[in-house]
Protein backbone atom coordinates (compact mmCIF):
# COMPACT_ATOMS: atom_id res chain seq x y z
CA UNK A 1 0.00 0.00 0.00
CA UNK A 2 1.21 3.51 -0.80
CA UNK A 3 2.02 5.87 2.07
CA UNK A 4 -0.81 8.41 2.36
CA UNK A 5 0.88 11.48 0.81
CA UNK A 6 1.71 9.39 -2.27
CA UNK A 7 -1.75 7.82 -2.39
CA UNK A 8 -3.25 11.33 -2.44
CA UNK A 9 -1.03 12.23 -5.40
CA UNK A 10 -1.88 9.16 -7.43
CA UNK A 11 -2.91 10.15 -10.97
CA UNK A 12 -2.57 13.83 -10.12
CA UNK A 13 -0.82 17.00 -11.22
CA UNK A 14 1.90 18.40 -8.96
CA UNK A 15 3.03 21.92 -9.75
CA UNK A 16 6.63 22.85 -9.09
CA UNK A 17 6.77 26.46 -7.96
CA UNK A 18 10.39 27.55 -8.06
CA UNK A 19 12.01 30.71 -9.36
CA UNK A 20 15.66 30.72 -10.36
CA UNK A 21 18.15 32.81 -8.40
CA UNK A 22 18.08 36.28 -9.95
CA UNK A 23 14.48 35.96 -11.13
CA UNK A 24 12.15 38.83 -10.14
CA UNK A 25 9.80 36.08 -8.85
CA UNK A 26 12.35 34.57 -6.40
CA UNK A 27 10.85 36.27 -3.33
CA UNK A 28 8.68 34.05 -1.08
CA UNK A 29 5.69 36.42 -1.43
CA UNK A 30 5.71 35.83 -5.21
CA UNK A 31 6.13 32.06 -4.77
CA UNK A 32 3.15 32.09 -2.40
CA UNK A 33 1.00 33.87 -5.01
CA UNK A 34 2.14 31.53 -7.80
CA UNK A 35 1.46 28.50 -5.59
CA UNK A 36 -2.03 29.73 -4.72
CA UNK A 37 -2.75 30.30 -8.41
CA UNK A 38 -1.62 26.71 -9.13
CA UNK A 39 -3.93 25.41 -6.39
CA UNK A 40 -6.80 27.44 -7.84
CA UNK A 41 -6.15 25.78 -11.19
CA UNK A 42 -6.34 22.28 -9.70
CA UNK A 43 -2.83 21.33 -8.58
CA UNK A 44 -3.14 18.35 -6.22
CA UNK A 45 0.38 18.79 -4.87
CA UNK A 46 3.22 21.32 -4.88
CA UNK A 47 6.98 20.98 -5.28
CA UNK A 48 8.80 23.81 -3.52
CA UNK A 49 12.33 24.94 -2.97
CA UNK A 50 13.49 26.37 0.41
CA UNK A 51 12.10 26.30 3.94
CA UNK A 52 10.51 29.78 3.78
CA UNK A 53 8.60 28.91 0.57
CA UNK A 54 7.45 25.58 2.04
CA UNK A 55 6.31 27.19 5.32
CA UNK A 56 4.43 29.94 3.46
CA UNK A 57 2.42 27.47 1.38
CA UNK A 58 2.01 24.97 4.25
CA UNK A 59 0.15 27.74 6.08
CA UNK A 60 -2.49 28.00 3.35
CA UNK A 61 -2.93 24.44 2.02
CA UNK A 62 -3.20 20.85 3.12
CA UNK A 63 -2.14 19.33 -0.24
CA UNK A 64 1.00 17.16 -0.19
CA UNK A 65 4.17 19.23 -0.50
CA UNK A 66 7.39 17.90 -1.98
CA UNK A 67 10.16 20.04 -0.53
CA UNK A 68 13.80 20.53 -1.44
CA UNK A 69 16.73 22.88 -1.14
CA UNK A 70 19.02 23.99 -3.92
CA UNK A 71 22.48 24.71 -2.64
CA UNK A 72 25.96 24.17 -3.97
CA UNK A 73 28.57 22.29 -1.92
CA UNK A 74 32.32 22.22 -2.44
CA UNK A 75 33.60 19.16 -4.29
CA UNK A 76 30.26 18.07 -5.74
CA UNK A 77 27.81 19.13 -8.42
CA UNK A 78 24.90 17.67 -6.47
CA UNK A 79 22.66 20.59 -5.50
CA UNK A 80 19.20 19.23 -4.63
CA UNK A 81 18.99 18.63 -0.83
CA UNK A 82 22.46 17.15 -0.59
CA UNK A 83 22.83 16.89 3.21
CA UNK A 84 20.84 15.36 6.12
CA UNK A 85 20.72 18.82 7.70
CA UNK A 86 18.94 20.21 4.61
CA UNK A 87 16.57 17.21 4.61
CA UNK A 88 15.63 18.01 8.23
CA UNK A 89 15.18 21.71 7.43
CA UNK A 90 12.79 20.92 4.57
CA UNK A 91 10.77 18.43 6.65
CA UNK A 92 10.58 20.83 9.60
CA UNK A 93 9.19 23.55 7.32
CA UNK A 94 6.21 21.30 6.57
CA UNK A 95 7.08 19.14 3.56
CA UNK A 96 5.38 15.72 3.48
CA UNK A 97 7.95 14.42 1.01
CA UNK A 98 11.61 15.46 0.83
CA UNK A 99 13.18 15.32 -2.64
CA UNK A 100 16.93 14.90 -2.96
CA UNK A 101 19.52 14.15 -5.63
CA UNK A 102 20.00 10.39 -5.97
CA UNK A 103 22.23 10.40 -9.05
CA UNK A 104 25.58 8.71 -9.45
CA UNK A 105 27.46 12.02 -9.29
CA UNK A 106 30.05 12.37 -6.50
CA UNK A 107 28.06 13.26 -3.39
CA UNK A 108 28.70 14.44 0.17
CA UNK A 109 26.22 11.92 1.72
CA UNK A 110 24.87 8.58 0.53
CA UNK A 111 21.29 8.14 -0.67
CA UNK A 112 20.66 5.84 2.31
CA UNK A 113 21.76 8.58 4.73
CA UNK A 114 19.36 11.09 3.14
CA UNK A 115 16.50 8.55 3.16
CA UNK A 116 17.11 7.88 6.85
CA UNK A 117 17.14 11.60 7.64
CA UNK A 118 13.79 12.05 5.86
CA UNK A 119 12.19 9.09 7.64
CA UNK A 120 13.57 10.14 11.03
CA UNK A 121 11.97 13.56 10.44
CA UNK A 122 8.61 11.91 9.66
CA UNK A 123 8.72 12.63 5.91
CA UNK A 124 8.75 10.42 2.83
CA UNK A 125 11.86 10.24 0.65
CA UNK A 126 11.70 11.10 -3.07
CA UNK A 127 14.86 10.21 -4.98
CA UNK A 128 15.52 12.43 -8.01
CA UNK A 129 17.21 10.13 -10.53
CA UNK A 130 18.48 10.29 -14.11
CA UNK A 131 18.73 6.59 -15.03
CA UNK A 132 17.07 3.25 -14.40
CA UNK A 133 20.13 2.05 -12.45
CA UNK A 134 19.92 5.04 -10.12
CA UNK A 135 16.23 4.26 -9.55
CA UNK A 136 17.05 0.66 -8.60
CA UNK A 137 19.77 1.85 -6.24
CA UNK A 138 17.46 4.43 -4.65
CA UNK A 139 14.79 1.82 -3.94
CA UNK A 140 17.44 -0.51 -2.52
CA UNK A 141 18.47 2.37 -0.22
CA UNK A 142 14.89 2.71 1.06
CA UNK A 143 13.43 5.55 -1.05
CA UNK A 144 9.61 5.73 -1.09
CA UNK A 145 9.39 7.01 -4.67
CA UNK A 146 11.70 8.08 -7.47
CA UNK A 147 11.31 11.02 -9.85
CA UNK A 148 12.73 11.34 -13.37
CA UNK A 149 13.78 14.89 -12.41
CA UNK A 150 17.49 14.62 -13.19
CA UNK A 151 17.38 13.01 -16.63
CA UNK A 152 19.09 15.44 -18.97
CA UNK A 153 20.95 17.09 -16.11
CA UNK A 154 23.68 14.49 -15.50
CA UNK A 155 26.43 13.81 -18.06
CA UNK A 156 25.48 10.11 -18.18
CA UNK A 157 21.78 10.62 -19.07
CA UNK A 158 20.37 11.50 -22.50
CA UNK A 159 20.56 15.23 -23.26
CA UNK A 160 17.28 16.11 -24.92
CA UNK A 161 14.85 18.99 -25.21
CA UNK A 162 11.76 16.87 -24.48
CA UNK A 163 10.81 14.61 -21.55
CA UNK A 164 12.64 11.29 -21.07
CA UNK A 165 9.80 8.96 -22.04
CA UNK A 166 12.27 6.12 -22.65
CA UNK A 167 13.29 6.25 -18.97
CA UNK A 168 9.62 6.26 -17.95
CA UNK A 169 8.93 3.22 -20.12
CA UNK A 170 11.97 1.44 -18.65
CA UNK A 171 10.84 2.21 -15.08
CA UNK A 172 7.39 0.88 -15.87
CA UNK A 173 8.82 -2.28 -17.46
CA UNK A 174 10.95 -2.82 -14.35
CA UNK A 175 7.83 -2.30 -12.18
CA UNK A 176 9.45 0.61 -10.35
CA UNK A 177 6.86 3.27 -9.41
CA UNK A 178 7.86 6.78 -10.47
CA UNK A 179 6.81 10.39 -10.57
CA UNK A 180 7.33 11.91 -14.02
CA UNK A 181 9.21 15.20 -13.95
CA UNK A 182 11.25 17.32 -16.33
CA UNK A 183 10.31 19.23 -19.48
CA UNK A 184 6.66 18.12 -19.45
CA UNK A 185 5.86 21.44 -21.05
CA UNK A 186 2.36 20.85 -22.46
CA UNK A 187 -0.84 19.23 -21.15
CA UNK A 188 -0.46 16.55 -23.85
CA UNK A 189 3.06 15.60 -22.68
CA UNK A 190 1.86 15.48 -19.06
CA UNK A 191 -0.99 13.17 -20.08
CA UNK A 192 1.44 10.99 -22.04
CA UNK A 193 3.58 10.55 -18.91
CA UNK A 194 0.54 9.39 -16.95
CA UNK A 195 -0.33 6.97 -19.74
CA UNK A 196 3.23 5.65 -19.52
CA UNK A 197 2.52 4.61 -15.94
CA UNK A 198 3.65 7.60 -13.88
CA UNK A 199 2.20 7.70 -10.38
CA UNK A 200 1.89 11.48 -10.73
CA UNK A 201 3.24 14.24 -12.94
CA UNK A 202 5.29 17.28 -11.90
CA UNK A 203 5.12 20.35 -14.13
CA UNK A 204 7.24 23.39 -13.31
CA UNK A 205 8.59 25.86 -15.86
CA UNK A 206 5.59 25.75 -18.24
CA UNK A 207 3.30 26.89 -15.42
CA UNK A 208 5.41 28.93 -13.02
CA UNK A 209 8.44 30.31 -14.88
CA UNK A 210 7.10 33.00 -17.24
CA UNK A 211 10.67 34.04 -18.06
CA UNK A 212 11.38 30.53 -19.47
CA UNK A 213 8.08 30.40 -21.35
CA UNK A 214 8.71 33.84 -22.85
CA UNK A 215 12.13 32.63 -24.04
CA UNK A 216 10.53 29.61 -25.77
CA UNK A 217 8.22 31.97 -27.68
CA UNK A 218 10.92 34.57 -28.43
CA UNK A 219 13.24 31.88 -29.77
CA UNK A 220 10.47 30.41 -31.91
CA UNK A 221 9.74 33.82 -33.42
CA UNK A 222 13.21 35.06 -34.21
CA UNK A 223 15.84 32.94 -32.55
CA UNK A 224 16.35 35.64 -29.92
CA UNK A 225 16.61 34.74 -26.25
CA UNK A 226 14.99 38.00 -25.13
CA UNK A 227 16.31 40.64 -22.79
CA UNK A 228 19.62 39.68 -21.18
CA UNK A 229 19.45 39.85 -17.40
C1 LIG B 1 16.93 19.71 -12.86
C2 LIG B 1 16.36 20.54 -11.75
O1 LIG B 1 17.08 21.19 -11.02
N1 LIG B 1 15.01 20.51 -11.61
C3 LIG B 1 14.36 21.27 -10.58
C4 LIG B 1 13.87 20.36 -9.55
O2 LIG B 1 13.22 20.64 -8.60
C5 LIG B 1 13.38 22.32 -11.08
O3 LIG B 1 14.16 23.42 -11.50
C6 LIG B 1 12.41 21.96 -12.25
O4 LIG B 1 11.65 23.10 -12.52
C7 LIG B 1 11.46 20.81 -11.91
O5 LIG B 1 12.18 19.61 -11.92
C8 LIG B 1 10.30 20.66 -12.91
O6 LIG B 1 10.78 20.51 -14.20
P1 LIG B 1 10.29 21.48 -15.39
O7 LIG B 1 10.53 22.89 -14.93
O8 LIG B 1 11.12 21.09 -16.57
O9 LIG B 1 8.82 21.20 -15.60
UniProtKB/TrEMBL annotation:
SUPFAM superfamilies noted in UniProt: Ribulose-phoshate binding barrel
GO terms under cellular component: cytosol
Any one biological process term the GO annotation gives: N-acetylmannosamine catabolic process
Pathway note: Amino-sugar metabolism; N-acetylneuraminate degradation; D-fructose 6-phosphate from N-acetylneuraminate: step 3/5
EC number: 5.1.3.9
Catalytic activity field: an N-acyl-D-glucosamine 6-phosphate = an N-acyl-D-mannosamine 6-phosphate
Enzyme class, UniProt record, top EC level: isomerase
Keyword Ribonucleoprotein appears in the UniProt entry: no
GO terms, molecular function: N-acylglucosamine-6-phosphate 2-epimerase activity
Key words, A-Z: Carbohydrate metabolism, Isomerase
Stored NCBIfam families: PRK01130.1
Role: Converts N-acetylmannosamine-6-phosphate (ManNAc-6-P) to N-acetylglucosamine-6-phosphate (GlcNAc-6-P).
Record family assignment: Belongs to the NanE family.
Descriptive protein name: Putative N-acetylmannosamine-6-phosphate 2-epimerase
Name of encoding gene: nanE
